[in-house]
């Protein structure tokens, strides 16, 4: 069954020139495998987990790469945390702890999938009118939450998502860094990993000591 979709200029501007997406049904076997893992880690299955998993599966197909990954070839830049990010991780195999997922905290339900070998990057996000269309199509006696679960699992990529090729606005190699790269900050004395230090007048300084700390010490630390 086809579900009418509409264009949204703001979404096109945010994501770039959109790609033509598959109109057919999703691969439920592959999707449900990812959703089982995501639900087990998250504690339950929710609609945004499905959107995250669908985004990752689509990105893998468009990049021509097998997902979930067992290596570090793909880097995911998730634009929100929570349910969506868990679905993305379960389907892509990219995790914060493996340094293959980064949070770009824009509060947007979207993610960019980067093939670090080729530099190709695909940004994927849900259609802006998605929830409105699901509510319009659902049976009168069906709860909205269940309608979202069903639609996000069964609708085609074209009905659910948008995707666009993008260019990264930062040095990918610098972000990834090198295994074993570490220095000790000359001010706080703490170890700094992944080349996140700077050198000022011959002194190695971490980002916090350069004025970028998200916290400030309290006097109570003296008693710990």
UniProtKB/TrEMBL annotation:
Formylmethanofuran dehydrogenase subunit E domain location: 42-161
Signal peptide from the UniProt entry: none
Pfam assignment, any one: FmdE
InterPro entries: FmdEsu_dom (IPR003814), tRNA_methyltr_O (IPR053194)
Protein known as: Formylmethanofuran dehydrogenase
Organism: Deinococcus radiophilus
């Amino acid at each position: 069954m086809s579900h009418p979709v509409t264009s949204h200029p703001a979404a096109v501007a945010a994501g770039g020139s959109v790609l033509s997406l598959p109109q057919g049904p999703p691969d439920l076997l592959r999707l449900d495998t990812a959703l089982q893992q995501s639900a087990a880690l998250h504690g339950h299955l929710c609609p945004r987990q499905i959107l995250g998993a669908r985004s990752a599966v689509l990105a893998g197909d468009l990049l021509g790469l097998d997902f979930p990954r067992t290596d570090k070839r793909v880097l995911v830049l998730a634009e929100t945390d929570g349910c969506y990010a868990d679905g993305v991780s379960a389907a892509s195999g990219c995790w914060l702890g493996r340094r293959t997922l980064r949070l770009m905290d824009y509060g947007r339900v979207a993610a960019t999938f980067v093939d670090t070998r080729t530099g190709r990057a695909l940004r994927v996000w849900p259609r802006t009118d998605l929830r409105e269309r699901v509510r319009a199509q659902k049976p009168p006696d069906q709860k909205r939450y269940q309608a979202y679960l069903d639609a996000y699992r069964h609708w085609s990529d074209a009905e659910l998502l948008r995707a666009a090729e993008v260019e990264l606005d930062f040095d990918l190699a610098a972000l990834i860094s090198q295994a074993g790269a570490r220095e000790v900050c000359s001010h706080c004395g703490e170890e700094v990993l992944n080349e996140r230090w700077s050198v000022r007048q011959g002194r190695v300084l971490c980002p916090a000591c350069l004025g970028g700390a998200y916290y400030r010490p309290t006097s109570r630390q003296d008693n710990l």
